[in-house]
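Amino acids appear as letters; backbone shape is given numerically. Here is one record.
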Amino acid sequence: MPVEMVGRVFSAIAGAVSMAGPLGALLGGFLGNMFGSSIVYSFGIRAMLPVSIQWFIDPLLRNIPN
C-alpha cells in the first residue's frame, strides 16, 4: 500500500470496527444467553488465536509504515 494511503486505509478500518462493535456485542449477548458465556468466550479466543499468531509471525504485518 502506498504510504500516502495509510491514513485512509486505517480510517476505513476504524470505521468498520466502530460499526461492527455494537453488532458483535448484541450477537455475543444473544449467544451467551443461549449457550453460556464460557462457550462464547472460548469460541472467541479460538477465533482470534490464529489471527494473533499470524500477526506475530508475519514481518510485513508488524512493520506497517507510520
About this structure: The helical segments are 6-35, 37-57, 59-62. Residues 28 and 40 are 7 Å apart (CA to CA). The chain is about 85% helix and 0% strand.
